[in-house]
Amino acid sequence: MTSQAIVLPARVERVAGWLRVAHRRLLAVRPLYVIAALLAVQWIAVLALALTVRHNGWIYYMGGDQLWHYGLAYQIVHGQLPPTLVGVGWPTILAPVAAAAGPNLVSALPAIIFFNTLVLMPLGLACMYGIGERIAGRVFGYWAALLWIVIPFVGIPYALHGYHQKWTELTLPQLLGLGAMSDYPSMIFLLAGAYFCLRSLAERHWIWAAVGGLAVGYAIAIKPSSSVFLVAPALVYVIFHVRSLIPFAAGLVPSVAALAVWKVRGEGNLPWRTSDHAQRLALGAGGVAHRYLRSNSWTQLHNNLLQIREHLWSDRILQFLVVAGLLALAVRSRRAALFVGTWFVVFLLLKGTYVNSRVEDATFWRLLMPAFPAFVLLAASVPLLVPGVRARAATPRRWPVSRRLVIAGVATFVAVLSLFPIALVAATKPIRGPRPAAFEINSILASQSNAPHPRAQVADGVVRLSWLPARPSPGAVFYSVYRDAGTVDTICGPVRHAPDLCEIHAQTLGTTAKPGFSDHPGAGTWTYRIGISANWLNDQTLGDVYVFSVPVTVTVH
Q1: Does residue 7 belong to any structural domain of this protein?
Q2: Domains of the chain: total
Q3: How many CA atoms lie within 13 A of 151 on its CB side?
Q4: Residue 135 to residue 141: CA distance in whole angstroms
Q5: What is the CATH number of the domain that holds 543?
Q6: Confidence bin at 288 (pLDDT 50/70/90)
Q7: How many CB atoms are closer than 10 A to CB 11?
Q8: For 552, phi and psi rounded to 5 degrees?
Q9: Helices 206-222 and 231-240, interaxial angle, to 10°?
Q10: Are both 421 and 447 inside the same structural domain?
Q11: Which of 386, 412, 429 is the last residue of a domain?
């Protein structure tokens, strides 16, 4: 008996021939050129989105936490320390920008967005390629990098009509760094840490594990909830190369030390050691509860999965990409499967079960941003299940380490990631009432500025307010007018061994686009403030106060 060879149709043979030729030619090109071309495509795509999605100048939709980060940055460069309810990494990165741009975040947005897109975006693309190359070779690295660019935009047609606005206007700008939130830089540093962790497993050199620890540590310093990522490298190192745990842990120390100093100085204690009930409330009980999983439930995860089915074209395809990608990775590389799978699952379980994580208002996608690179890698791995695909990981290359280079690199990282933030914090004084330089209003931090220079005139029971107009070129602003009885419009709750948490308890009188306002308060002593507000739609019924004027007090007879 003889066996007949399978003869493929001519068209299939031609396509297969073209793919083989393209594969050979792609391998003949230097990776730097391919990554540069992909980066150009990503920049063009982001620019197209930035020009077409609704926005107010440089102001795109942001979640609100950006005002805490920027307010802290502005205050610490001026020697004041408000309560440090967020991480240390992003405020200290923004500190030089805040020193130049002033207290209004609107003026600083161009510099922040340029930093995200010109510095962090290329870093993320290069690391995505590097992880793909480590898993299954150069072509797979190019494929993973391409999906890193494409998948966010695939979500536009994938979202159903009623959900289109929430994906394009609420999610994509944050996912692509068009704003001042800390989620994007934290995601990029986690991606860099993941690359160096996988490289340390392949090359068995301690320097890569240490650099991976530095990157992951800084991601945690930017957004402390990212610490759940540590489960992935811990598992992989314990199972496959336990010696790398020590340099990786050593790499974590500088940023974790800076974060600890930041929290002790700004909260009076490390958050998990806070025992006083009043202090817990002052320091943000919601964040502490989330940290202890008191605000998480399986019901919420179930609801989010149902909402994905309701608002997106298909939830089954997303589930298939995760499961099939994990299976493909397990067949090709157990280390990669364990690392990437754990990375995705721990964030899904922590953030997907959080009560304030909801698909219907798009908070689910922002909170899951740290796991987005893992999802891209899982989706990219699905073609590896196709029989005959012979993707091979990059061969580990010996890397000669210069002792001087290592010492210089470690010293630079420690100085930037640890000593600089600690020095900034050490040079500050805690904010104290009753007239603080920054205060909380509607769960955001707003700095006080002399720039509006408000004035008030009283005549016939009418208070006429006027102030200098703010015209930041990056976006249009409007003004919110606040009034309170008496001479002090703030309440400061003293926190032992920490800055006061001060709140404005004034009444909102209204908003206006003009630098003037008239009020009929009645007889008495009244204190007014002008809040400079902005939002991505330039809608006076929406948005937060970015900066407050100094108070002006009048007496009406």
Answers
A1: no
A2: 2
A3: 18
A4: 8
A5: 2.60.40.10
A6: very low
A7: 8
A8: -130, 130
A9: 160
A10: no
A11: 429
